[in-house]
Design goal:
alpha+beta; metal-binding; 2 domains; Collagenase (Catalytic Domain); metalloprotease; Immunoglobulin-like; metal ion binding; MetalloPept_cat_dom_sf; 19 strands; single chain
Length: 361
């Protein structure tokens, strides 16, 4: 029923990442011949440098699973929806990296139809594309320091192929009318949440509702250019009426959802995402998976349990559909300075604006 015929494999660019004026990494994607329905691609990352590199596995396809939106997928010039997990994370640990010796490669295979809406027939244009600070690092020969570029970017060749259209994969729920399940206010639990966990969740939601309302009120009162204070500029960058309006809309939508929609809190986490704070699927409002880092976080302050709720609520498409362009205070602030357009679509920037720790006006 499904036919995955390769039409073209562009090789104009081999997908290279520039580090200290060099091009040490090549990334190639190619289709995988198969008989079953799906859109399997093989990703090969090769270290072209003379130094050992390490790559953050959050942005790879280990065990044929995606942990992040790492492909650009287009059909008829329109971006195809990503339906995989989007997680709030802390700082990476050494075990979150894979190491590549000079000339070494890592090869991974993933079925894109399990993570992107590829139900329509047509020619799909695909590229592996990650532009996240810290995604790749060069390890010195003595392993005493890390050389890191400010703006790491990993880009593959372009791949195009025809698909006849397929049945809805198990985790592509964007076509279901999930919003209809969330009309009535309420709270339900999945994943065997304990009584003590339910108390923690309820406290976090109470505070998150307060934070959402306060953030919306701040934006309503400071919408004029001369009133956009340090707090706004720290997390969202230079003022523009369009960007300011979008941020305000995000907070009004997520605050409304926190207060009036039915929330489903899930205490089950996938193994690969176990050490994160939480994750959601953008087109499944308002279902939030809470993970290990959430339970040890403070109720308030930066990277808090209440702030995590704000972060995850901002991810849902119906609330604005934010991304994870940067994690952590430092990188979120830097994003606001360098790229305000991305900052207003970054979930951590929304969380830190709402947590407001330390307090800014």
């Amino acid at each position: 029923m499904n036919c995955m015929n390769q039409l073209s494999l562009a090789t104009v660019l081999a997908g290279v990442f520039s580090l200290a004026q060099a091009q040490p990494v090549s990334i190639r994607i190619e289709p995988v011949n198969q008989k079953n329905n799906g859109a399997e691609v093989r990703v090969k990352i090769t270290n072209l440098s003379q130094n050992e590199l390490k790559i953050l596995n959050w942005y790879l396809a280990g065990d044929a699973e995606l942990q992040s939106d790492i492909f650009s997928v287009f059909l008829d010039g329109q971006a195809v929806d990503y339906s995989g997990p989007i997680a709030k994370r802390g700082l990476p640990e050494e075990r979150d990296y894979i190491h590549l010796a000079p000339s070494a490669s890592v090869i991974q295979t993933v079925d894109l139809s399990a993570y992107y809406d590829m139900t329509q027939a047509g020619i799909y244009h695909i590229q592996y594309h990650v532009n996240v600070p810290g995604v790749i690092q060069e390890v010195s020969a003595l392993k005493t320091k890390i050389k890191q570029n400010a703006d790491e970017e990993l880009v593959s060749n372009d791949l195009s192929f025809w698909m006849d259209g397929i049945d809805l994969p198990y985790n592509v729920l964007s076509k279901l009318n999930t919003s209809a399940l969330n009309i009535n206010q309420g709270l339900s639990y999945l994943g065997n949440c304990s009584n003590s966990q339910k108390v923690i969740i309820q406290d976090a939601l109470v505070t998150a509702r307060q934070m959402g309302r306060e953030s919306g009120s701040y934006l309503d009162q400071n919408w004029q250019p001369d009133k956009a204070g340090i707090r706004y500029k720290t997390w969202f960058g230079d003022y523009s009426a369009t960007r300011f309006a979008k941020v305000a809309d995000h907070f009004h939508l997520l605050s409304d959802a926190l207060n009036y929609k039915h929330l489903t809190i899930d205490c089950f986490c996938k193994e690969k995402l176990l050490r994160t704070y939480a994750y959601v699927y953008r087109n499944q409002p308002y279902h939030i998976h809470l993970c290990q880092a959430f339970w040890s976080a403070p109720l308030t302050g930066h990277d808090s349990r209440s702030g995590t709720m704000i972060h995850e609520m901002s991810h849902f498409t119906v609330n604005g559909g934010t991304y994870d362009y940067a994690y952590g205070h430092y990188r979120a602030k830097r994003l606001a300075v360098l790229d305000p357009d991305k900052a207003i679509m970054n979930a951590d920037n929304h969380e830190y604006f709402s947590e407001n720790t330390p307090a800014l006006k």
